[in-house]
Amino acid sequence: MKRFKALLIYFLLLLPFISFCQTNSDCSDVTISSATVNGGYTVSSYLESNGVRDGNDYYGSTIYYPENTSGLLPSIIIIPGYANPELSVQAWGSFLASHGIVCMTIGTNSIWDEVIERKIALQDALISLKAENNRTNSSLFNKLDTNLIALGGWSMGGGGAQLVAVEDPNIKAVLAFCPWIDPSVVSPTLLNHNSPILIFSGQIDVVAPPGAHADIQYNYTPSSTKKLKYEVFGGGHTIANTPLGGFGDVGRMGLSWLKKYLVNDSCYCPLLLDIPTTASDYETNIDCSIASGIVDYINDLIIYPNPVSSTITLKGVLVKNNLYQIISIDGKVLKSEILKTTKIDVSFLKKGIYFLEYRNQKIKLIKN
Prior knowledge:
By secondary structure, this protein is α/β, with parallel strands linked by helices.
């Protein structure tokens, strides 16, 4: 009897923890659709004139924040590109705040400020944003997690955001919108940072052509750093200035990157590996592995790891002795066998994108 009571007390103490774990492992509400549209929070905003610290190295700011939240909030600071005002990137403010991420947009002292000046502007804005957590009249008083801050920037602003990450290892994530860095100075040393970075680019961008900017910056970012490059088909230099770019794929990818690497919400990782139909180029080194509680799935079928180098494992409602096929993106069947085990060797595939088809389900398969 005493043993039963002891077990009962132990179970009751453990119950809240069990419930918490189950809640956090339920990713049913996280979908491509939910990440493409505005989130469920009502959004408010305020200006520098409402009492925000006036930094010397940038000009003006707007802070967008979600209302009626609990717990400390993560945040991101976004800076515009050369010859453009703060307004050019403000569409991200309401979108991210509606999903629970505070977004501060800033202007520059001169619209002609170049990459280094934009780096310095972001560093100054970091001081201002963190100060909001301690300012008693701030709408964000005691509501910010000052350890969870990301940076974003368009064009030269995207270049500046990367340079801040090199100097400040506390930057949790970076969004670079068609980033521009002088090709004559960019190098692996210049971009040697550990902040997970998502680089957007436009296929027909004539201001920052991907081949001279986004592609090189992606390649020069250390292989040990989590990184993803998404080039939007037919996109120009402003394709990522709004979450609506790429028919909403830009917003979905940007939000999912911040949710995964700023907020540490693993549910969004598969959305990053679901390659946008609007992508003319896509490359990443991230892995939504089962070991970290993340999987790539459709309905009841799961495959992991994905991307994969040699062997994938299937999990879910499997029926052995059913046919499976591996198909190339141009529709060619590269492997067709009866499923006799939960492991499939794909080491013969070249690096690229394929589909695994099984019981009328298709899952994208990325081969490293």
